[in-house]
Amino acid sequence: MLIEAWQRLSAGLGAKGEQFYDWVAARLPTVQEPCGDEPTRQRWMPGRRSISKRDAIA
Questions:
Q1: What is the pLDDT of residues 26-50, one digit of tens each?
Q2: Which residue has the higher pLDDT, 17 or 57?
Q3: How many CB atoms within 10 Å of residue 38?
């Protein structure tokens, strides 16, 4: 599994203003097609963590 670098991005406006989180994407193994062809689909798993609680990853 390859994990790309964390990036700080906005999750939109909230009651207290703009909300920022650190985001990451991990590439998962490709999916084997049922007909035996070469795998063509890539899967990704996103992750988000709080800026103040860096060990709380969702």
A1: 888 887 777 766 666 788 899 999 8
A2: 17
A3: 7
- Cα dist. 8→11, 40, 45, 49, 56 in Å? 10, 30, 17, 10, 15
What whole-number distance in Å separates Cα of residue 18 and Cα of residue 52?
15
Which H/E stretch holds residue 13? strand 7-14
Q: Give pLDDT, residue 2.
A: 45
Any idea which residue has 């909230």 for tokens?
Answer: 14
Give the amino acid at 53: K
The Cα–Cα gap between 42 and 30 comes to 5
